[in-house]
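seq:
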Amino acid sequence: MKIMTPFNTTDEIHDLAENGATELYTGVNDPDWIRKYPIAGINRRVEIKSNLNGFEELKRSVDIAHSYNVPVELTLNEHYYTQAQYPHLLDYVKKAIDAGIDALVVSDIALILVLREHGMNVPLHLSTGGAVFNSEAGGFYAQIGISRVTIPRHLTLEEIRSLISKAAVPEFVVFILNSRCANIDGLCTFDHLPFKCPDPGKFLGMAAVSRYPEHVFSKDIIATGACMLPYLVEFLEPLPTGLSGAREEKLNATLKRQQLWDKNHIDNIPCGACALYDFKRMGVSSVKIVGRGNPLRRKIGDIKFIKMLLDLLDGDMPKDEYMRYARNLYMANYSRPCRSIGCYYPEVLPKEYSGVTHEKG
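struct:
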């Protein structure tokens, strides 16, 4: 399996590749887009620090990555665009292709069709925003030109196994570290900024804002991110008497999930490393580390963690022994215990991990 790693500056690529990144992905800021659509992300990352500063930097990045035989994917994965935006998007993609990118990560079905209609000859990989919940959806995307699917975060291991075995898609990607969103990304229309931002310079950093002296930023920018807001799940009426046990259990689980989520931040280093054992046997192509804007030190630590575990899978270590090692390595690397609330695939964990316990040894 490949390790798909984010980057947001050219200077990071050498260290990421040297430490085990085998695929890279990034975004590119476009000042013309920002000026015209200041609160509409081109790739679901409105904050400048999470993207490269233009296509010249992308070209330099691709050249360095290719010197390590590491491909670069460019994110263009907003969930939808308006018709008026397509001429700009087509020009954006042409510049990306000229820079030498290996693939585009996309979500919008209309954009996929427009790119094909205009003969944009670049591999298309589907973002989790494409919402492939089953093999039929996977087959549909394959028919319109998608060669790789990123599986949504909330699917279980059994659902993922079934999807991979039945869908006519050459490659699949699963999430493995960071940003375990409790919601369904494909149904979300928010960008990744959590609050009203009256001072973009303070939030994004004056160095980033100064890249665009044409004053493309507005003091009234409102950055919306509902997944980061406090929320409450409750029943409007008492549960009806005679409700089936299975349904009542599921409804109560919804409340419990909300209570746990309210106490756990979205980026408390969620992890799915224990499931690597299963993913290798399913034929997963790549595991994705989230965090374009994370510091380089954090990115390197994440890569090393996953690489150590993938190297173990090249041997014949029994599954129980592997999982015990993975949990202890997580504790050693991130100084926190495994918990089901922070696990991408909690069904793989022993029951004692439903709380905050940690297995020693």
